[in-house]
Amino acid sequence: MQFLGREASIIIFILILAQGFHYSRTCDCDQQYFCNCSSNHLQQVPKVPANALGLDLSFNQIESIDMSDLSPYSELKTLNLHKNKLKFIHKDAFKSQHKLEVLDLSLNNLKNLSSSWFQELNSLQQLNLVGNPYTTLGPAPIFQSLLNLRMLRFGSPSLREVYKNGLDGLTHLDEMTFVGSNLRLYENGSLKAARPIGLVSLSLQNLFQNNPELVSKVLQDVSHPETLLIIKDVALRTNTSTEPFKSAREGGTKSLSFQNSTTTDEAMTSLLMVMDGSSLSYIGLEDVHLIGQGWWQKASYTHYESLHTAYIRNLDIQGFFRFNSMMQLGFLLVHLHKVSVINGTVFVIPRETTPLLKNLEYLDLSQNLLSDLTIEPTLYTGFGAYQNLNTLNVSQNVIKSLGLMSRLATKLKSLTYLDLSHNSFVSMPENCSWPATLRFLNLSSTKLRKLTPCLPSSLTALDLSENDLMVFNQRFPQLTTLILTGNRFMKLPQGELFPRLQTLLIQRNALRMFNGNDLRRFKTLQYLEASNNNFVCSCEFVSFFRHDVDHFITIRDNRRNYVCDTPFTLRGDAVDSVRLSVFECYMIPAVLVLCSLIIIVLGLIVVTCYKFHIIWYLHMTKAWIQAKRKPAVGRLVEELRYDAFVSYSQHDAEWVEEILVPELESAHPPFALCLHRRDFQPGRWIVDNIIDSIEKSHRTLFVLSEHFVTSEWCRYELDFSHFRIVDEHNDSAVLVLLEPIKKETIPKRFCKLRKIMNSRTYLEWPEDEEKRSEFWGKLRAALQRDEC
């Protein structure tokens, strides 16, 4: 039983490890406590940190959420269960999620919605229930507890019946999306909120054609002057399909947009007639397929004095080149203040049409087919056309002449903003004319290689990003914002050219570095974005960027994207993380200091060696070691050639050679003396001669005088003799004091002499001749060889 218990514990431990491995493999939690578990084939809610703030479980295979699955995660603010296989959610599954703000349950298999799910979600602001197969909504109040809800998305193609469900109690709802393409029953007031909703998106598809009465009920509940009404995924082909918009007109709808829809010129004419007399001020067409040839005559008598904005994007006109002129829409164009026709294959606005745009203030014709040939009639200003135009966007067309555009823009007397980006100008003329009112000019991605005085000096904002520019020399006295991102600038432009510049963007160029002097030239610069450049991480730049740059400007982009390009060892490192040594930063001064220290140390060593005679001691030690390594047989008595080796100063040579040597060598028996002048082997190193002579001598006779203690070679001989006395434990040294010497006058390096004089009796050369016979007798006795 004990064994089984231990085995069970091991199995549980392995399961825990496997579960931890599964967590680490399926979920990625970042530093913001957001855990991404998307697309991992999960069949249940995985284990994540209890303090997780966000949990993405989308695109998995989770079929149910039990009461305890989410209970540990009471800090969650975002929960995404989009595109799973959810069939069951326990009524208390979200009971601990008091802080949850975003909940996505879209595209699952929930056949019934329960108000109990939302009872504790007091902080919920966004709820998505779209795409679940529930068939009925209500009559139980499902959403009444979500008092802070701001965005609600619900409905599905399977939805058949809608009843009042608690929307009338939501006082903060700003956006609602409803999908009911197959709706059969709708209770009046079901989609009516407590106050007007800012945006309502309806996807009712064929109901406009098949059940217009039901659509009218829906529009009656959601239409309001403060509501932007978006109709999605519909096909308006006949007059009948537009009848429900009477409810929108009666509800005071001012903003109406169609998205991802198909319509005909006949249906659009009918719509204009149905909405005639309304307060409609905004009309939008996005991703709309239009069939017809542009016959709008029947609507020419309608009144749309309040219509001031038309937004058209991705309009596909079937048989575009057979489409009629816009002249028949003159009754609308004359009232418009803002027009956007984006990606609509527009290649020209006929000259006859432009006078109808006399009230136009904003015109966006981006992503079209305008060229140098067609832009001139398009911007024809005759008969008061474009007299109020202040914003013009013709980006992403096929215009190639900047000079032509400047000439046409000059005629737009109210123009303040001009976007010419993503055209192919390549070059820029030397001189251009521009309207004096122009303040904002966008020339990004126009393949410019060189700037000329063509640009207007009246600008306050200039965008030259994504070109091939390297030099900027023109002065802009009013410029406050300059965008040079994506060019080839190797240094910041001269700040004196921009006396009022506040914001400079120069990312993704070839900047090597910048410093305080560069930034001081910009008298008013406040914000700089210069990341993703080829920075040379010199000591000067690294120090400036880490410690001083914030004293000059505010770095607005991510400082981690300021990385080193050189030196190679630092490539890819963030400038903020670079730490350079003193030698890297101050190479020449550091080398000078190091060399100075080396010289000083060497000088100290030399002085020390001189003062304490260290070199001499080293030479001595080396010579003695070499002598010690020689065979000791030479020291046997029968091998000794001399009775004494005479060590004396050259200044005492006369006494030695004329008095000492004759007296001893003529004695009976005579003494064999070794003199360096006479007996040293020529060509041999003098130290070897000294060592060899001392070793082959029975005694060493030192002739001491003031000259002796000042001689280096005498010191060698004295030291080697002292080594011999110590090493062989004999009395081989004989001292003859030729003249009185005070011990305190003997230099410190002659410490051996002091020791010998203190430990041995020495003979003094007498001045009195009568005593000299006694001196010679004692000396001969001291030199006498011992009997074997």
From TrEMBL:
The chain crosses the membrane at residues 586-610. It comes from the Eukaryota. Keywords: Disulfide bond, Glycoprotein, Immunity, Inflammatory response, Innate immunity, Leucine-rich repeat, Membrane, Receptor, Repeat, Signal, Transmembrane, Transmembrane helix. The keyword Cell wall biogenesis/degradation does not apply. One of its GO terms (cellular component) is plasma membrane. Disulfide bonds join C29-C35, C432-C454. It is a single-pass type I membrane protein. PROSITE patterns: LRR, TIR. One of its GO terms (molecular function) is triacyl lipopeptide binding. GO terms for biological process: inflammatory response; innate immune response; toll-like receptor signaling pathway. It is found in: Membrane. InterPro entries: Leu-rich_rpt (IPR001611), Leu-rich_rpt_typical-subtyp (IPR003591), LRR_dom_sf (IPR032675), TIR_dom (IPR000157), Toll-like_receptor (IPR017241), Toll_tir_struct_dom_sf (IPR035897). Residues 1-26 form the signal peptide. Residues 640-783 form the TIR domain. Belongs to the Toll-like receptor family. PANTHER family: TOLL-LIKE RECEPTOR, TOLL-LIKE RECEPTOR 2. Cooperates with LY96 to mediate the innate immune response to bacterial lipoproteins and other microbial cell wall components. Cooperates with TLR1 or TLR6 to mediate the innate immune response to bacterial lipoproteins or lipopeptides. Acts via MYD88 and TRAF6, leading to NF-kappa-B activation, cytokine secretion and the inflammatory response. This is Toll-like receptor 2. The lineage of its organism: Eukaryota, Metazoa, Chordata, Craniata, Vertebrata. The gene is tlr2a.
